[in-house]
Amino acid sequence: METITDVQTMQERCATARQAGRRIAFVPTMGYLHEGHLSLLREGRRRGDLLVLSIFVNPAQFGQGEDLDAYPRDLTRDSELARSAGVDLIFAPEARDVYPAGYATYVEVEGLTDTLCGRSRPGHFRGVTTVVCKLFNIVQPHMALFGRKDFQQLAVIRRMTRDLNLPVEIVGMPIVREPDGLAMSSRNVYLSADERRQALALIGAVRLAVKRVGEGERRAAVLIDAVRLRIEREPDASMDYVQICHADTLEDVETVDSDSVMLLAVRIGGTRLIDNHYLFQEV
Predict the structure, then answer these.
(1) Is 37 designated active site?
(2) Half-sphere exposure (Cβ direction) of 100: Cα atoms closer than 13 Å
(3) Based on the number of CB atoms within 10 Å of its own CB, is 18 exposed (0-12), middle (13-18) or buried (19 or more)?
(4) What is the DSSP letter of 221?
């Protein structure tokens, strides 16, 4: 395994691999790897000849007052985990190399970014799509793997890739959860012991909604009210949003069907957590 920090070196290395007929699988991350990331890497190892992992805490997707400076970073730890998953190349650039002086070009996806996290975090998805587009141009992968925990992000990246005719297969992978059901996230390390217990309200709310649908409830508004009440039982919890949307368009639905997904973002203390689930599937 090799770690590369220089943009041009990385681009040349990947171009050489493509010319040699090697199939490149790519997993872009902000580091502080957990089992969710490792599941993407193992699948990428299975599908590709060259497995590339990027580790880059992207400043363009953090808003004012968000946790850019506090976001957990540990390249040594991440490198050990990456090696165990069979990674061939780690790309770990500095922000000044990704966004050099005078940088002025951004990628925006309209429509899909107007709701959910896009509404509560203005500019976030512009930062995501810009950096992912840049990484695709540097790494030149045949496929890129993303987790479905960031459901809206996956939808936005699929749309960007399709709209810009980027020759990259986008692979969505299932949410990986802790044994008690909490979705794995690098931000989980922010939670105190009591906050960690309260964070189970997210999976509790998901299970409640799935149960109500199984009992015959189809009204989205009724399900959303039930979820809000469940979350608000926790003293340190505050809702950012809970919405039930069509899986492809992310438009709100009034009546739940097999294409309906519930998405929620909740602050537990100072930590913002997200989760989602198709309402006609067991958790």
Answers:
(1) yes
(2) 4
(3) middle
(4) H
Please check whether the two domains, 2-173 and 186-276, share a CATH topology: no
Q: Per residue of the chain (283 residues), what is the pLDDT tens digit?
A: 999 999 999 999 999 999 999 999 999 999 999 999 999 999 999 999 999 999 999 999 999 999 999 999 999 999 999 999 999 999 999 999 999 999 999 999 999 999 999 999 999 999 999 999 999 999 999 999 999 999 999 999 999 999 999 999 999 999 999 999 999 999 999 999 999 999 999 999 999 999 999 999 999 999 999 999 999 999 999 999 999 999 999 999 999 999 999 999 999 999 999 999 999 999 9
Domain 2-173 class in CATH: alpha beta
CA distance 279 to 247: 11
Q: Are strands 271-278 and 237-246 parallel, antiparallel or unpaired?
A: unpaired
Catalytic residue among 34, 37, 124, 246, which? 37
Backbone angles phi, psi at 124, to 5 degrees: -60, -50
Q: Would strands 143-147 and 24-29 be described as parallel, antiparallel, or unpaired?
A: parallel
Both tokens of 235, joined, read 């003293």
CATH tag for 186-276 (out of 3.30.1300.10, 3.40.50.2300, 2.40.128.90, 3.40.630.30):
3.30.1300.10
Domain ranges (residues) in the chain: 2-173, 186-276
Contact 145, 40 (CB under 8 A): yes
Task: Note the pTM of the prediction, 2 decimals.
Answer: 0.95
